[in-house]
Amino acid sequence: xxxxxxxxxxxxxxVTKRSSGVRSSVKSxxxxxxVYIDALKSISFEVARxxxxxxxxxxxxxxxxxIKILSxxxxxxxxxxKINGMIPYEDRERYVSNIGVVFGQRSQLWWDIPxxxxxxxxxxxxxxxxxxxxxxxxxxxxLLNIEEIIKIPVRQLSLGQRMRCEIAASLLHNxxxxxxxxxxxxxxxxxxxxxxxxxxxxxxxxxxxxILTTHDMSDIEALAKRIIMIGKGEVLYDGTLQKLKNKYDxxxxxxxxxxxxxxxxRKKGIIDKRKIDGGYEFDVDSKIIDxxxxxxxxxxxxxxxxxxxxxxxxxxxxxxxxxxxxx
Amino acid sequence: MVKVYLxxxxxxxxxxxxxxxxxxxxxxxQFFVFFASYFVxxxxxxxxxxxxxxxxxxxxxxxxxxxxxFSLNEVFARGVDNFDHFIKAGKxxxxxxxxxxxxxxxxxxxxxxxxxxxxxQSIVILIIALVNLDIDWSVFKVLIILNMIAGAFCVFLGVFxxxxxxxxxxxxxxxxxxxxxxxxxxxxxxxxxxxxxxxxTFFTYVIPFAFINYYPLLYFTGRxxxxxxxxxxxxxxxxxxxxxxxxxxxxxxxxSTGS
Lengths: 327, 259
Known about the structure:
The complex is a heterodimer.
Chain A: E1 4-16, H1 22-30, E2 34-47, E3 52-56, H2 63-70, E4 78-83, H3 92-96, E5 99-103, H4 115-125, H5 130-143, H6 159-171, E6 177-181, H7 189-206, E7 209-213, H8 217-223, E8 226-231, E9 234-240, H9 241-248, E10 251-258, E11 270-276, E12 279-285, H10 291-301, E13 304-311, H11 314-324
Parallel strand pairs in A: 3-7, 3-8, 5-6, 6-7
Antiparallel strand pairs in A: 1-2, 1-4, 8-9, 10-12, 10-13, 11-12
Helix pairs in contact in A: 6-7
Chain B: H1 2-16, H2 20-48, H3 56-76, H4 78-81, H5 83-88, H6 92-96, H7 102-109, H8 116-132, H9 139-170, H10 176-188, H11 197-206, H12 214-220, H13 236-250
């Protein structure tokens, strides 16, 4: 049996239909119309212990709903969700003492006082023995480089500093699963790197299973070998990131620096041509025409000074994927 | 459990101390608000002398006891009172992620030390009333005051819990709660017999305010001698326990908010 087992899990929300205008809002006061939204339609996947899984999808795809069910906040309408032998929403108190959750958009730290005080409260909430607490806190604090930061009232911290404190707070009780809901949202490059390196490290050293949702594909590239893509409440892709890339990175962006004016080129495989500073940029489908063939063809026509070949970046791959599934 | 709650208290105190001046000013301004209603009662009696046979100090006695119970709620159960805001802000999710009883966490989520000001004033008024009443003191008379305070605390807590439970269904707080809690407090400050019969019935059997002021007051002032009346405020427990269970059952309806 897998560590995390989700099978045909569904969740429907009943939402009040609201229309604009005074008249209709008065009307809705007496009689409400409801719409049913299928947030999740029979989702299934499994995750092994110690894996890092990137859970991606556009806004409203059902990512947060899944995380909320997996972390015991919501109960699904149907289907099975079993983690570490427990059903999160049935066994709540026992289950949550073994997980850590970070919501990038919501804080669990107390606003007016230093993060250290929240840590102190968490010690009692999770009933962490004093010695364990001190050694773990010291370890986390030095790994995330927040020795001084945890002594400052949280409201005075920058977002990056606060996020590091949030992550430390979610790991004080040494959970075996960590849920990260958009952990790098709004962070600068340096803070992002600290957070990513840290997640990698605890995954490797402590065998913490990590489920990560994000819109930042560089998070996924840096952390997750495996991604699960969800759209309109269904799993659309479940596999390695590499495989996805192989499938879609046939489009090459080739920059050619040249003085020669290039006229219209009609050749199969050349998708687009744009004028750039000092030359042209071509989008070439390498499935149809080999890059070397293309260059050959081009150098016969124009005098090439310099070239630069770029793969499709991961964001574009994702956009394409979303388009393909019409989500 | 107790340890966790005490830690909550400590952190709230620490948070408040971040804004000392604003706390002190708030504390003082609470004084003025509250004493206004005290003077209303005083001037009312200066005109009428007594209401349905109750003297000014008897009324002040129930007024003080009920307000002690109510302000205890304002200090310690503010999280329950403000539960609709709590759910709307999505903070309830965080509670579900902690391996501690939900209700304890709701209580711990907000503690309003500012309202200790009201508690203090109510105690002052209670002392004024007791000094001026001619009481034949006994152990039961002391016990009855404690019971009344406990009962008053529980009855308002129950009303707040019911309203909080309702938030699980609508997310929005219900204005009815103000009728029952704040309106109820206004009623409960006076013995039920001064009101019309329909009101009295409602606040005896539906929301059992009469058991915390009227009946004990009859014993306390020597109008009745039935010893059972000493314990009548404890009937409130029959009211507050189901409230707690309704809250727990309703919490299964929780749907969370987006993001």
